[in-house]
Design a protein that fits this description.
Elements lengths: L1 H23 L2 H8 L3 H14 L7 H22 L3 H9 L1 H32 L4 H18 L2 H12 L3 H9 L4 H9 L7 H14 L2 H14 L6 H33 L6 H12 L1 H34 L13 H18 L6 H27 L2 H4 L6 H28 L1
Length: about 425
């Protein structure tokens, strides 16, 4: 009897720990996984298809860089109670803020279109018309945000993140060479070739985007996180980062094990899903397609929200998903406009998506260094952050991240323009 009671207590304790872990998840998990959007999946699938396992090693420094950038913004939100655009306006002036926000609006509008294109592509993988699925998806996302509360939106976004688990199963169904995977993770390789460098910087540019910093900080503020209870959010940021990069790992592994081995190249995430079927089976294709749909839905919600947060903060208007249209017309109006435009453009036949993405990539590439250096100036401002500024080691890693990402972002712009 005693042993049975002890076993029950252990089970209850495990359940409590699991519930506490789930309760922690929120802004960090959502933001990091929103980075694995339709464009990201296409990039990672192309990486695996073209270079096999040889670039897996880059995921280790990317994990550190992404986690550091996200954690700094989350910490600023907890300490100041203000969003990133709010702080940029206060510290750098209205004109500079207006320029940054205009660029962010244009870039995010273009990427939002690509997310709805991802939804359309995923729907057509399963034989459903984009003219049905895209409008329904747009209405569902709009209704969730405009008519829901922050908690409901957060839960829905976290549920969408679970779809990424399909990539893990898909990778195992592809039967990779795990020995070669291990070598790719620990043995850096680099070649001064156009295709290799393009793929290298594309992964960096896809993983760390300006909207992610805006969203995670604003979400922390809206969730009511303070520095006193920030530790749980810090765990959430790092857990979300590690989970997101693990998904990238399995996308690369699954496509390397099948498409690279067969010499098949892909240009879109839908191409990768189609190509997986004859090589890894119907279920691998289905899981990949479901992952594309879930990723696009998540990013199609997060991107317009991040933009709405930044515009409302920069102009000093009321914001928040728990607000009504009457309370926050600029915030919810911006969100509605982006969702509507994204969905409408995505159903245009023969849309020149590559051109749309090229322009937005250039803007994002120019904007990212500006945002990163602004974040570093703000997070090291003792008047603003008090004792919660970066420490020496953290600052070295953060500045190294900003400088490397800046160089690679500019290189990505140059290579993209030359390639086009």
């Amino acid at each position: 009897m005693r042993r049975g009671a002890s076993g029950v207590r252990r089970t209850v304790a495990r359940r409590k720990r699991l519930l506490m872990f789930v309760a922690i998840l929120g802004p960090g998990m959502i933001t990091a996984n929103a980075g694995n959007d339709a464009g990201g999946i296409a990039t990672f699938a192309s990486l695996g298809a073209e270079f096999g396992y040889s670039l897996l090693w880059i995921l280790i420094p990317i994990t550190i860089s992404l986690g550091i950038v996200q954690e700094m913004c989350a910490r600023m939100g907890a300490v100041t109670g203000k969003g990133l655009a709010d702080l940029i306006r206060e510290r750098f002036g209205v004109r500079w803020t207006a320029l940054v926000m205009l660029a962010l609006l244009v870039a995010n509008a273009g990427v939002t279109v690509s997310e709805f294109v991802g939804i359309a592509a995923a729907a057509e993988l399963f034989g459903t018309s984009r003219f049905i699925v895209v409008p329904l998806a747009a209405i569902a996302i709009w209704w969730l945000v405009v008519k829901g509360s922050y908690k409901k939106v957060e839960r829905a976004f976290l549920l969408m993140s679970l779809v990424f688990l399909g990539y893990i199963v898909s990778a195992f169904l592809s039967k990779p060479d795990w020995g070669a995977v291990a070598v790719g993770l620990v043995k850096p390789s680099f070649r001064m070739e156009h295709a290799f460098l393009f793929a290298f910087v594309a992964v960096i540019g896809t993983t760390i985007s300006p909207y992610m910093q805006v969203f995670v900080q604003s979400s922390v503020v809206e969730k009511g996180v303070t520095i006193d209870n920030y530790q749980k959010t810090k765990i959430d940021v790092w857990v979300g980062t590690i989970f997101a990069i693990l998904i990238v790992f399995f996308i690369v592994v699954s496509t390397a094990a099948t498409l690279n081995k067969a010499g098949i190249q892909v240009n879109t995430a839908a191409d990768a899903a189609h190509a997986l079927r004859p090589l890894a089976g119907r279920y691998a294709q289905t899981l990949f397609g479901l992952g594309l749909f879930g990723a696009s839905m998540l990013a199609a919600g997060v991107l317009p929200l991040a933009t709405a947060y930044s515009i409302a903060e920069a102009l000093g208007f009321e914001k928040g998903v728990s607000r009504s249209f009457r309370e926050a017309p600029i915030f919810l109006g911006t969100f509605t406009f982006l969702v509507a435009v994204g969905a409408l453009i995505a159903v245009i036949p023969n849309l020149p998506l590559i051109r749309v993405l090229l322009v937005t990539q250039v803007i994002n590439g120019l904007l990212l260094p500006v945002v990163l250096f602004a974040v570093l100036r703000l997070v090291n401002d003792r008047e603003l952050m008090g004792d919660h500024v970066n420490g020496l080691l953290y600052n070295v890693l953060a500045w190294a991240t900003a400088i490397i990402v800046t160089i690679l972002s500019l290189a990505f712009i140059l290579i993209t323009v030359i390639k086009e």
